[in-house]
Design a protein that fits this description.
Helix content is about 50%, strand content about 15%. By secondary structure, it is α/β, with parallel strands linked by helices. It has 2 domains: about 1-35; about 55-185, Glutaredoxin. Helix 2 (about 85-100) links the parallel strand 3 (about 75-80) and strand 4 (about 105-110). It is elongated and about 90 Å long. The two termini are about 45 Å apart.
Amino acid sequence: MLLLSQALLWCVVIVLAITVLALARQIGVLHERIAPVGALALGQGPQPGEVAPRLVAETLGGATAVIGGARPRLQLLFFVAPSCPVCKQLLPTARLVAETEQADLLLVGDGDHRQHRDMAERHGIALDDFVNSAEVGQTYRVGKLPYAVLIDDDGTIIAQGLVNTREHLESLFAVKESGHRSVQDFLKARRDEARMVEGIDSHG
């Protein structure tokens, strides 16, 4: 009787181990399918790979800011509004990501000058790193916020899209590092490579 009980117990343990392994594999597949999709590109305005329109705008501090064109570093345009809570929440993150990636951050707003100035001062943004210009938003066809555009040092648009998290902001820079047109293309290529490897293994 004791031997039978031990045999049954071992059978249960083996079945549980197989079940755990199967679940772990499924979790890996699920994680791959729901990988971060990156910033949501809307397909409007200037597109990645195109030369960024060269614009000149006045900063909140009265200086001149040049958007686009050749420059020593990357340029990250971050479109915000004082009435946008997500914009305010993401501001410190945008500054940190830009600093980490060695990019020049330029905030872009459109509206009441005093409100934008108050927003900059409240969040410790230098007034010369913030422009209040309807022209810039119209040129890039920005309709929803927060929105970001990453411009290469040669003046070419690298990536753009709606950004709601740090991962979205970082995905703009991942496009440059991966060599793909967008993060979505990068993830698709990675999935295709994984399927190809699985196919080779199954036929091997």
